[in-house]
Amino acid sequence: MHRSEQPPMPQDSVQAELSRWVADMPDVDPQTEAARQRIGRMSRLFERLLAQVAADHELTAGDWAALSALQRSGPPYQASPTTLSQQLGITSGTMSVRLARLAQAGLIESVASADGRSKPVRLTLHGQDRWRAATQQRTAREHRLFTEALTRHDLEELNALLGRLLGRLEDEFGQATRHDVPKDT
Fold it and tell me: Over the range 12-27, which residues count as b (16 or more CB within 10 Å of their CB) and which as e?
């Protein structure tokens, strides 16, 4: 089969339920509900993939999110615990637990602060390496999933459509967090 040919796809769980929804919810547009259900279910499945890859690298998904926030802060890859908890939308207590676990594993270290009040942390080289390896594995798995289901043209179209929808949602609700925010500690 050529890459441009559409592979046969199994019926998804939303499609299997759609006819019942039409009967149960006559005032709801079934296509809108189906799209929202698919996006929500895919989000939960991508969270599952993220957790599996994190576990492969001896991390929780939450630990990986913290490493990602530090990595994306750019050199010198450091931030205060308060900044990290705000970026990730988690409590300071949850952030403290994550940072203690990451420090114990040698993935982050405390750094001196200019004002003496905050205790910034930064990625160690070991932390950068662990983050990079986990991220490479995640993106490779996601790439495989996308390219097994979609052609390059499909993916470009999907990105254009999702971009329009995300833009509309952001107009109404503001931007979502930049980082995946898993539910674990």
Answer: eebeeebeeeeeeeee
Backbone φ and ψ for 59, nearest 5 degrees, come out as -130, 160
CA-based nearest residue to 82, from 50, 53, 120: 120
Contact status, residue 53 vs residue 41, Cβ threshold 8 Å: no
- Sorted by where each starts, the structural domains of the chain and their CATH numbers stand as 30-173 (1.10.10.10)
Backbone phi, psi, residue 27, to 5°? -95, 0
Residue whose token pair is 């040919």: 5
- pLDDT, one tens digit per residue, over 54-99 is 999 999 999 999 999 999 999 999 999 999 999 998 999 999 999 9
Dist. CA 141–CA 154, nearest whole Å: 18
For residue 54 the two structure tokens come to 């994190």
Count of CA atoms in the C-beta half-sphere (13 A) of 167: 6
Instruction: Give first-to-last CA distance, the chain, whole Å.
Output: 44
45-51: Cβ within 8 A, 24+ apart: 46/142, 47/180, 47/182, 47/183, 49/138, 49/141, 49/142, 49/145, 50/138, 50/180, 50/182, 51/182, 51/184
Give the chain's length. Answer: 185
